[in-house]
Amino acid sequence: MKIEIYGTGCPKCRATMGNVQKAVKEMGLEQQAEVSEVKDIKALIAKGILLTPALVIDGIKVSVGRIPSREEIKKWIKETK
């Protein structure tokens, strides 16, 4: 499973990363989930992301422009498994 946080490294992006890491750990998916940050502006534009942070799970945009909760993230992970 590939989880990407698209953003510039702003406080909202870091908070999203923290929530993703906690959700992955709480679900026991540390070994299965590859969590990464995408800060390249060209990559954001190519993905059609105009607001950050954006959360993409296995190529599917699940959140844009806000900090999703750990519970939301867990729900999305289960839906994309």
Structure description:
With 81 residues, the protein is α+β, with helices and mostly antiparallel strands. The protein has a single domain (2-80), classed as Glutaredoxin. 41% of the residues lie in helices and 23% in strands. The protein contains 3 helices and 4 strands. It has helices spanning 11-26, 41-46, 70-80; strands at residues 2-6, 34-38, 54-57, 60-64. A 4-stranded mixed sheet has the order 2-1-3-4. Strand 3 and strand 4 form a beta hairpin. Helix 1 crosses helix 3 (70-80). It is globular and about 30 Å long. The N and C termini lie close together (8 Å).
The gist of it:
This protein is an alpha+beta fold and 81 residues long. The protein has three helices and four strands. The longest helix is centred in the first third of the chain and has 16 residues, at 11-26.
Architecture blueprint of SSEs:
Elements: E1 2-6, H1 11-26, E2 34-38, H2 41-46, E3 54-57, E4 60-64, H3 70-80
Parallel strand pairs: 1-2
Antiparallel strand pairs: 1-3, 3-4
Helix pairs in contact: 1-3
Describe this protein with a few key phrases.
single chain, 81 residues, alpha+beta, Glutaredoxin, 4-stranded mixed beta sheet, 4 strands, globular
